[in-house]
Amino acid sequence: MPKYLVFITVIGKDQKGIIARISNAVYTHNINIEDLNQKVMEGYFVMTMLADMSDSSMTIPELKKELSIIEKEMGLSIQVQHEDIFKAMHRV
Question: How does strand 77-82 pair with strand 5-13?
Answer without folding.
Answer: antiparallel
